[in-house]
Design goal:
Distance between the termini: 10 Å
CATH topology of the largest domain: Aminopeptidase
CATH class of the largest domain: Alpha Beta
CATH superfamily of the largest domain: Zn peptidases
Bound molecules: zinc ion
Largest sheet: 6 strands, mixed
Helix content: 25-40%
């Protein structure tokens, strides 16, 4: 049998094992925040990788403030060298999940397998993807295919909260950079026939207004920051929103509504802190958090200036109001070129296995691609993995076992093609 057929058969033969591995990972409640059980999950994956012939290293996020005794940030990296160090394909998945939230009809951490689906928080985003990547590499070995280049597989922490103690840390420490790695696949739940080539940029800010406190029975003696913030919110809606809606990107961002620049007011707070006991005061402070998503075609300096000018115009003429804008997070957009070997190989295998053409998409939000590209300097990085994106972070999250198998087959064939076959 040609090696392609043997690899496909080995993944198919591991169908139950793949579902069970996904369920086992779901049962480890790696909830972020605060970042629970990371070490348990990293060890489970590390033990599995060691048994599958990987050299395994644990990378705790020493020196990061979020790496605490109560919630240690531990990453795991496995490396299975082929005949040569290059080409090297690195599979990277995050092991953290968001809190379950309300509305579940099954145990979010029960790892229930029923009717061809694995249920639980993280089944789709993205323990299913991690399990599919693990089985993909193992299936190649079971098929008796000796690879020419090297395979790496890492499970990293904190993607849901920015990835600084996770993928960013690996890149900063030289474990995920273009010095050793040629290709990166992140098995996020994009669907089995879609390749995600990048994401929009993020500009997160806190806009704070300061007025003057006074007795609430004599509001004319003070200056209300809450009222002034009303003008800022109105300006964002009436002035900024239509401008952003008119800007379209050529990057294939999904869903369609995210193919333009957007903003969201994530939070607002003002006046006295909410407490059962209140005293009558004019609100002398008010702040909002603005989450602006920008396009590859937008220049970041312009994005920053535009927001600042909308805010200062909104409060112009309001005596006694001061403002400041604090930057909380800036992420530049990233995009992998569509004609590189990684995208071509993956697209060909998607078509070969599913008999459907691959669709190239980009993410409305960000994920660890930014660290791979910006810190690691790796040009060829995509997200590709099983699961339906819209189920991520939802109650009763699930991943279909057919999708797990299909994505695992496609990953196995793609990695084999990209790192090359030494002997089959
Ligand atoms: Zn994810």
């Amino acid at each position: 049998m040609p090696h392609r057929e043997r690899i496909l058969a080995q993944v198919e033969a591991a169908r139950d094992e793949l579902a069970a591995l996904t369920a086992a990972l779901v049962r480890i409640p790696t909830v972020n925040p605060p970042g629970e059980a990371y070490d348990v999950c990293a060890t489970a994956i590390g033990d599995w990788l060691a048994a599958a012939g990987f050299d395994v290293a644990y990378v705790p996020a020493d020196g990061r403030p979020e790496h605490t005794a109560a919630c240690p940030r531990v990453n795991v990296v496995g490396r299975r060298p082929g005949r040569s160090a290059r080409p090297c394909l690195h599979l990277n998945g995050h092991l953290d999940v968001v809190p379950p939230g309300d509305g579940w009809t099954v145990d979010p951490f029960g790892g229930l397998v029923r009717d061809g689906r694995v249920y639980g928080r993280g089944a789709c985003d993205m323990k299913g993807g991690l399990a599919a990547a693990m089985i993909a590499v193992e299936a190649v070995r079971r098929a008796g295919v000796e690879l020419a280049g090297t395979i790496e597989l890492s499970a990293t922490v904190d993607e849901e909260s920015g990835g600084w103690a996770g993928a960013a840390l690996l890149a900063a420490r030289g474990l995920l950079t273009s010095k050793t790695v040629d290709f990166v696949i992140i098995p996020e739940p994009l669907g089995v026939d879609r390749i995600c080539v990048g994401h929009r940029g993020v500009y997160w800010t806190r806009i704070s207004l300061h007025g003057r406190v006074a007795h609430g029975s004599m509001p004319f003696l003070g200056v209300s920051a809450v009222e002034a913030m009303g003008s800022v919110l109105e300006a964002l809606r009436k002035d900024l929103a239509p401008r952003l809606a008119s800007r379209r990107t050529s990057v294939p961002v999904v869903p369609e509504g995210a193919r333009q620049a957007t903003f969201n007011v994530n939070a607002i707070s003002g006046g006295q802190v909410d407490h059962p006991v209140q005293t009558p005061c004019v609100a002398d402070r008010c702040s909002i958090i603005v989450d602006r998503r920008f396009l590859l075609e937008e220049n970041f300096d312009r994005v920053r200036e535009e927001l600042a000018s909308v805010v200062s115009q909104a409060i112009e003429g309001r005596d006694g109001i001061r403002h400041r804008i604090d930057e909380l997070l800036v992420v530049e957009p990233v995009r992998t070129p569509e004609d590189v070997p990684l995208v071509k190989a993956l697209a060909a295998q998607i078509e070969g296995v599913t008999a459907r053409p691959a669709t190239l998409v980009a993410s409305p939000g960000t994920y660890d691609h930014k660290h791979v590209a910006r810190i690691g300097g790796i040009e060829q990085c995509v997200a590709y993995g099983p699961g339906i994106l819209e189920l991520a972070h939802q109650p009763d999250e699930w991943c279909g076992i057919d999708d797990l198998v299909t994505a695992s087959q496609i990953m196995a064939l793609t990695l084999t093609e990209l790192v090359g076959v030494a002997r089959s």
